[in-house]
Structures are given as C-alpha cells and as structure tokens.
Design brief:
This protein has 244 residues and is α+β, with helices and mostly antiparallel strands. 39% of the residues lie in helices and 14% in strands. It has a 3-stranded antiparallel sheet with strand order 2-1-3.
Length: 244
C-alpha cells in the first residue's frame, strides 16, 4: 500500500488516516480533496475548534508534531463512502483504538454531543469575525436572481410563529430608539408618496406620510400601501390610491 505524507498530498479524492504517534490512536476519514481536508483538520485543531473533541484533546496535549496525515488510497468520489466503511472495518478506529465517533461512514446518526462540547462550540463562535466576508457585495445578477426566487413566497405559519418568538422581549438600545424617534418626527420619508384615503365611514384623507398616519390610526402601513398601489382592493375597509 502506497501512502502519501504531508508534502505529497494530492488534490484528489480518497481515504486518509490521522495518527497520533505518541498513543498510536488513529482517525479515518474520506475527502473529495485530500489536501484541502488536511488543511481544514489541522487548521481547526490549531484554533482549538475542531469538531471532534477526542482528537482535539489529544492535539492540545501532544501538539501538532505528534500527528501525521497519510493517504490510505485514492478513490473515485462515488466510492468514497463504501471505501471509508471498508477501512472502518479493517482498522477499527473507535474507542480506545481511535478518535472516530461515528461507526457508519458518511453519517452522524446516533452521535451524542455533550452539553459541555456544545457550549464550547457556541463560545468559540461568539464574536468571530470573517475578514474575507466583510464588505463583500453580491453582483446585481445574483441579487436579482434571489429577488425573483422569493417573489410570491410566503412564510409558513410555523416560521411566522418562530420569528415572532425570536422577537419577543428583544429591545433596541436607547441610542437606536432615539434615532428612530428623531427620524420620524414631523417629516415624511424622502421617498414618501402622497395618497388619497377613504375610511370605512366615508371620510377622505390626503396623506403625505402613510407610515405615520397608520401608526396614529392603528393600521399596518404595508396593508394600506398595497391598497394604494393597486395590489389589493382595500385594507380593513380602507380604500386608497396614490396621487403621484
């Protein structure tokens, strides 16, 4: 069997083994790109945020120099799972002999993650910044594609309930509240449109700030705006249309 070590890892799919040379324990895995997978493993271990707590604990104890990464075989992508299962059966990298948590290749069913491990993972991600994503903007074509895909899509009642629960008890900072208050005081938004409204009792209103009017009358601006824009005939008995 030919093995590939650190410097000779190819950009190819295959089965690999990570070995702790101090204890002899091993970890077996499969990857579409072996070189990328090695980088991901050792990057996570170095940052102390690897998904496998057993492997992470050993790495913290013995250091990076105590671990090797070798390719057991190159495999076509469609055969990765089957060959990974073969090496599971052959080398038995579980319990005292290894670091693997899942006994079925390509599945995490049945894995029990301790509360301590979950809390550690959550704490690690808090406040994490991804510099490569900062300031990144989607191209106009991607934005338009996303907009078109969402046209007419309605959230399920379950989704609406979860969103409402997530907002329950959420408070804005005093600075944010004051900024919103000042912004709404006595002037219409720069993109405001004048609307003619007819109430259920027949009273006419000419409104320059539809949002403010709706707040004062206990109405939803979106509903009345849709009526004014011709998307619906009326909203809660109110009829409306834009004058401009």
């Amino acid at each position: 069997m030919t093995t590939f070590y650190h410097d000779g890892i190819p950009n190819a799919s295959g089965i690999y083994r990570i070995t702790c040379v101090v204890t002899g324990k091993i970890y077996i895995g499969s990857a579409m790109n072996l070189r990328t997978r090695r980088k991901a493993h050792f990057g996570g271990l170095t940052r102390n945020e690897h998904h496998n707590p057993k492997l992470q604990n050993a790495f913290n104890k013995y250091g990076e120099d105590a671990f090797t990464f070798e390719v057991l075989e190159l495999v076509l992508p469609m055969s990765l799972t089957a060959r990974e299962q073969y090496w599971f059966a052959k080398l038995n990298p579980f319990g005292k002999r290894g670091f693997n948590l899942d006994r079925v290749a390509g599945s995490s069913l049945g894995r029990v993650v301790s509360q301590a491990a979950r809390e550690k993972s959550r704490t690690t991600q808090l406040g994490r910044v991804y510099p490569e994503r900062q300031g990144r903007k989607q191209p106009p074509q991607a934005v338009e594609k996303t907009r078109q895909a969402n046209l007419g899509r309605k959230a399920s009642e379950e989704t609406k309930r979860k969103q409402a629960e997530a907002r329950t008890g959420k408070k804005h900072s005093l600075a944010t509240c004051e900024k919103k208050r000042q912004s709404a005081l006595g002037h219409a938004p720069t993109n405001a449109r004048t609307a003619l409204l007819l109430s259920p009792d027949g009273t006419e209103y000419t409104v320059h700030n539809l949002s403010e009017f709706c707040r004062e009358h206990g109405l939803k601006a979106a509903g009345l705006s849709n009526a004014a824009g011709g998307k619906r005939k009326q909203y809660r008995g109110w009829k409306a249309h834009y004058l401009d």
